[in-house]
Every structure is written in C-alpha cells, then in structure tokens.
Amino acid sequence: MAATLKDIAKEVGVSLATVSRVLNKDQSLSVSDDTRQRIFEVAEELQYSKNKRRTMPTIRKRLAIIQWYSESKEQDDLYYMSVRMGIEQRGQTTQFDVTRIFQNNLQELSTDIDAVIAVGKFSPQQVADMSAATDNLVFVDDDQFDAGFDSVVTDFRLATEKVVEYFWQRGLHQIGFIHGSEMTTDRQLSVVDRRMLGFRSAMERRHAFDPKLVFKGDYTSESGFKMMQKAIRTLGDQLPTAFFVANDPMAAGALKALQANDIKVPERVKLFSFNNTSLATFVYPELSAVNVDTELMGATAVNLVISRLEGRQTAQRVELGTNLVERASTK
Fold this sequence. Notes:
41% helix, six-stranded parallel beta sheet, alpha/beta, six-stranded mixed beta sheet, Rossmann fold
C-alpha cells in the first residue's frame, strides 16, 4: 500500500499539517532543520510521492461506450461483448461513470459527456458526428489513426500468418478460408475483413492461394454453416484438409455442416477459428483458435482516455498481439 502523509506524520511524531507544509517546501513554517530533514528522509524511506495519483482522474468523469452492435446481436458475438466488459471493468477501477449506447445510437449521447470509446466499425460521417461531441474519442477494433484518432486494434496480419504457418508446418498446404463482410450501421461503408487480406498475402507468398477455396459470409453461425455446405457441395473430393474461419460463430456453424455431412473433424478436415471466445470450448470437438485479448483491448482504450483527459494531444495507435490456442479441432 502506498504511503500517506498520515504515515509520515506518525513516523516522525509531528502533525499532518507540518508534514504537508514541509513537503510543499513552505519556508515560512517554523520547524527545526532536523525535523524538516527527518520528514524528507521518512518520505523517501516510505516511497511517498505526492504525484502518485495523477495517472487517475481526480474527479468522476462521464464515459460513453458506443457499441456498433445491438444488444441482441452482441449476445451472438461474444467478441464485442468481451471488449465492452473490459472497458467497463477498467472504467470502474478508474472512477468513471460509464454509459452504454448500442447500435451506434448517437441520439442517446449526452451533451455533457467527457469521453467516448467507440467499439466496432464506423463510417466517416459517424466518426465526424462522434468527434463533434467530444475531443476525447478512442476507437476499438476500428483503425482511425490516419484520421487523427486514438485506436486500439489487433494485429490481424501476423495472426493470420501464424495460422497459415501452423497448417503449413503440418503438411497441410491446401487451406480453405471462410470469412465475412458487413456494413456500418448507416450503410455507408462496406467493411473489409483484414483477416482475408492477411490470408491472401500469406498464401500468395507460398504460391498457394486459390480463390475457389475462399467463401464469404456475414460472421454469423448460420452463415458459417451455409458457407461450409457450399464448399462441400462445390468442391466434393477436393475439399481442403484444413480451414481457417474468421470468427467463432462462423467456425461453429462450419463445424456443424461438416458433421451433418459425416465429415470427421479433425481426421478429414481440421478447423482453426479466430477470437477464442467461450463459444470455442462449447462445441465438440473444441475449436483451436487465435486468442485475442479483448478485455485488454477495452482496458487499453480506457487508459488512452485517461491520458487524453490529462492533456495528451497526439494521437496514439495501439496494436495488440495474439497467440494460438490448439484444441481438438486441429489435433
């Protein structure tokens, strides 16, 4: 526990006010040089710092979380729920009053808000609307750094490379990919899946990219099921021995389609998912997955808000790494 002025006063045997005035170098205070020196010595021994709390807001600030998903859709995609929970947990420990706004409903945004953390994907107009409400704006899972805003993102390129290399080292060179596409809530911007860009780049470097093995859905379990059904139907005996799927709901749907067609996992087809939410362990066989520390993404966003409130003006971009979690779907 950090030392307080009271601790120093007790150790030296003087009043709290005397300690405070000495440490603030009040030369008008009538106190002996020995006592003054002893106060400084004890403060150093106890590692007291009067600046120790400046990294935290000194008064409660109002923080709005703008989630681009609706509450019901968030329940289907635990990735964004986990990000939000990371924000709320860190916000609570740093004395923020946190407000939730779902489906980018900016009409609910209070005019007296101190900061906004936007979670998801947003069009230029939506970014402009949020920035008009506050200068303290941080994006999570949407790289707005080039537009001058703080951003917390995942290293999709390296994560995808790790999965491709995982399969490659095991002699699995024919790799299928199921990914998604979606629009911002105002339907103004189509969001490109950066995992797709990373997958194509990784496979092209190995001279192994085949567009016939790539299937695009919409990130839902139903879409994962349909896309794997399509792969089974169109590829037949040429169905790849390995599939990388862009998120856990789609991977769960793909697994269900393979099982419905009596295609054994992992014996005939190995599956690797992305995000590593709890859903990855709720299916059988359990899914190998790229682990994204979503709660850390949320906490990092709050830390960026704090530094903004303390006066930082230069935009920062924080890119978090990932790790592979191997489970039964690839063993």
